[in-house]
């Protein structure tokens, strides 16, 4: 399964935001990578600004170009505001739901946990990170995996109340997707309308 495996700090510096979480390199070098990165930044064109927003969304959720384009097509053919529906589709990915539940500290770690068959959906093991979790479905840690140190450490002290669209159940080490999140409930700093404008030109 393809995924981005390059240097994450370089991407964070390029986009100017800690999209992979706390980043010591970004805090020290808050300018783009490369020979001329520390020089005065050139003003981005309208297209450049829109493209950067799409790249930010792709890297934040760990989605490659073809997957992202397919999700946008699905969002644009759905009822509702296209940009908001796109973010909801990204939030429904199983690796993202595992991350939101606190079972993993990063989306990359959540992807690994899913791939290694530690997660169930409605009681059945699912090892596809891009699986779309539907409202009413329950995502939980597999019984044999509940004592894994990486999962126990991640859950320790995690605030499960910060995502109102997911209901946590301590007894199963998992939670139910109550409904799709509203835009104001999605904490990512993504200007989805710019992504819609970008695709509308293609």
Structural class: alpha+beta
Helix proportion range = 40-55%
CATH class of the domain at 93-179: Alpha Beta
Number of strands: 5
The best one-word shape is globular
CATH superfamily of the domain at 93-179: RNA-binding S4 domain
- What topology, given as strand order, has the largest sheet? 2-1-3-5-4
The separation of the N and C termini measures: 27 Å
Q: What is the level-2 CATH architecture name of the domain at 93-179?
A: Roll
Description of the structure:
The chain has helices spanning 8-15, 24-28, 46-61, 65-76, 82-91, 94-100, 107-115, 149-155, 192-200; strands spanning 119-121, 124-125, 138-141, 166-169, 174-177. The protein is an alpha+beta fold and 202 residues long. It has a domain at 93-179: RNA-binding S4 domain (Structural Genomics Hypothetical 15.5 Kd Protein In mrcA-pckA Intergenic Region, Chain A, Roll), CATH 3.10.290. A five-stranded antiparallel sheet has the order 2-1-3-5-4, with helices on one face. It is globular. The model has no long low-confidence stretch (mean pLDDT 87).
Key traits:
202 residues, 9 helices, Structural Genomics Hypothetical 15.5 Kd Protein In mrcA-pckA Intergenic Region, Chain A, globular, alpha+beta
């Amino acid at each position: 399964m393809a995924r981005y495996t390059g240097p994450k700090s370089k991407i964070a510096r390029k986009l100017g935001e800690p999209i992979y979480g706390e980043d010591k390199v970004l805090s020290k070098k808050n300018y783009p990578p490369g020979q001329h990165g520390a020089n005065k930044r050139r003003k981005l064109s309208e297209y450049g600004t829109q493209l950067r927003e799409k790249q930010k969304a792709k890297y934040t959720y760990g989605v490659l170009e073809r997957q992202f384009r397919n999700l946008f097509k699905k969002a644009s053919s759905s009822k509702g505001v296209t940009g908001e529906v796109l973010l909801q589709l990204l939030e429904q990915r199983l690796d993202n739901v595992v991350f939101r539940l606190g079972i993993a500290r990063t989306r990359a770690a959540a992807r690994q946990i899913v791939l290694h068959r530690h997660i169930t959906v409605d009681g059945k093991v699912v090892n596809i990170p891009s699986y779309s979790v539907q409202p009413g479905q329950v995502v939980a840690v597999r019984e044999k995996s509940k004592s894994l140190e990486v999962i126990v450490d991640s859950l320790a002290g995690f605030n499960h109340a910060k995502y109102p669209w997911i209901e946590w159940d301590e007894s199963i080490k998992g939670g139910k997707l109550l409904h799709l999140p509203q835009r104001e409930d999605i904490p990512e700093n993504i200007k989805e309308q710019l992504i819609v404008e970008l695709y509308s030109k293609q």
